[in-house]
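Sample A.
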Amino acid sequence: MIQIVVAGVAQGCVYGMIALGFVLIYKATEQVNFAQGDIMMLGMFTAFTLIATGGLSWWLGIVLAIAVTGAFGFFLDKLMLRQIIGQPQFAVVILTIALGFIFRSVAGGVWGADPVSFTTPYGRTIVTLNESETGNTVIDVSDLVIILGTIILVAVMYAFFRFTRIGIAMQAASQNQLAACYMGIPVKYIFSLIWGISAAVSCVAGILLAPKIATFDPDVGFLAITAFAAAVIGGFGSLPGALLGGLIIGVTEQLAQAYLPGDFARAVAPVSGFVILLVVLLVRPDGLFAQTQRKKV
């Protein structure tokens, strides 16, 4: 049970980090970026290029990959998404879906469709917590790294939004764009920064996920579909809710895979998160941590 829960928490942390990317953009701009998973995929391939192909150390490679992916998200908003401000939300949805297809096609053309991987300092190692006659409790180190990395990321983001001027300006812009503009906050620049931070967070999720899944290809971005469900479960617009939704789905998937019988487990485990999503939408349509906002029109 311990190793199942740890594996589920680790998987849930990945879902939660990708969901954080969705929520960050939505809170600030009320836009939904359906290319979030494909941006994560580009970040993973950037890390692969720097580490496996470029020969950089793992630490330097991931720092540069996060920086490059963050810059990519920044300029994606500055040069493209900003051009459709004022258009119906449906236009943003279609544009980001189209961008996702473009990103996958470009990745397939540049890196190919074959699965790739890059080495990590901890490799595919395990930790045995206890040994008994009934069996061992074995924990994958990659799961522990994912959990630790998520804790560090959440702490850094909390400190950033709580104590830095830019973070406070981002909160102000997300609450009231017009008032923030009147107070001298460069709202458009802030929004581009938020897109960059969202892309960087997704890159972190992808880099932590890569050793756990061993190999990845351009279709790894479809993982964001489950992360989107996690964001909805937590309450679309709530950062703690995004993490909680990811943990709920991750643990549920692992428990279903471990305790349901054979073929039934293989069929149910991948969709168990969406079953929870349906239940939550029926019981609490706004999500578990929904934040009610009123606007004057």
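Sample B, a different protein:
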Amino acid sequence: MSTNPLLRGLKNTHPGELLREDVLPALNRTKTEIASLLGISRQTLYDILDEKQPVTPGMALRLGKLCGNGPDLWINMQRAYDLRIAEKKLAKEIGKIPTLGEAI
């Protein structure tokens, strides 16, 4: 689990939630139009918005270009989400692994 007490208990935010709740409403375009502009199917967009599909590196490039903020935000958000989910799922197993020290 996170060692930062400020982050404990925070909801894991999938990039699809940010797209659904903040970005798409601000763009004032239909989901069909956004999917077309991204060069993806509507189903792919809906799967990301419904948090059923991750933001891949390719999708991060597309979203970063469309939104003008670059791919790093999107891929880093997905990475952080994936790590938090894995951390929760594997917490007991990871807790049993000793830390031997720095490798480098």
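Observation for Sample B: The longest helix spans residues 72-89.
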